[in-house]
Amino acid sequence: MAADPGLIYDIEPSDYFKFFNCMGGLGSRDNCTTVKESIADLNLPSIAIPNLRTFQAMTRSVTNVDQVNAVYKAFLQPPTGVEMAVDPSVLVFSEEKKVLSFKVNFKATRRSIQGDYIFGSPLQFAL
């Protein structure tokens, strides 16, 4: 429910600004020293990987806005032809640890997916 999200993916307007100005070429390239390499690097809940050939890893950070001591487990349903793994697959939040990062690994298992768009279910963390 949007009124009680549990985990949120923090992203600043400056992240979008740098992406569109530095990667998208929509403005001056001033302050482009820390530009993200691709849209896949933006800290968003959705992940799009153009032309997955072999292996790619993404890192995401989430902030717990639910109960203080919460444990979330990752649930995946990878698209056909792709293996996925989340590390760590369990996120343990506490008073001291409100923001945690995790890595999502993608591995193409079929050559036929190259150049095509395929869709999987969203990565979900549940209590």
From TrEMBL:
Pfam families, sorted: fn3_6
Claim: Signal is one of the keywords in the record: yes
UniProt domain Subtilisin-like protease fibronectin type-III: residue ranges: 41-121
Domain of life of the native organism: Eukaryota
Keyword Signal listed: yes
Assigned keywords, A-Z: Signal
PANTHER family in alphabetical order: PROPROTEIN CONVERTASE SUBTILISIN/KEXIN
Family of the protein in this entry: Belongs to the peptidase S8 family.
Protein name in the entry: Subtilisin-like protease fibronectin type-III domain-containing protein
Organism: Oryza meridionalis
